[in-house]
Write a structure and sequence with these properties.
- The protein is of the alpha+beta class.
- It has one domain: Arc Repressor Mutant, subunit A, CATH 1.10.10.10.
- Helices cover 58% and strands 14% of the residues.
- 6% of the residues are buried.
Length: 88
């Protein structure tokens, strides 16, 4: 979902944003997020057909709720990295 928050809308953009994920696993996760109501899937009738994803209102609300936790985690990892750095 972080990839969606950063602007990913197409399968290839998600694949590029999520390191080391197989196409099969990514497809499964996108379906799960859609089924959970966190992503909206739109089929664009073109040649070839395009599938686009975007965060649903519930997905956006979840990302907003998780943002403080993500920021805390980042601050903590930075502090621990400084504390655990080997001394010269």
């Amino acid at each position: 979902m972080a990839a969606a928050r950063q602007g990913a809308t197409r399968f290839s953009e998600y694949r590029a944003a999520v390191a080391s994920i197989s196409d099969q696993l990514l497809s499964q996760r996108l379906k799960e997020l859609e089924a959970a109501g966190l992503l909206d899937r739109t089929v664009v009738p073109s040649m070839p057909v395009q599938i686009r994803y975007q965060l649903s209102p519930d997905g956006l609300a979840l990302m907003d709720a998780l943002q403080p936790l993500a920021q805390w985690s980042l601050r903590r990892s930075v502090r621990r990295g400084v504390e655990q750095a080997p001394s010269a």
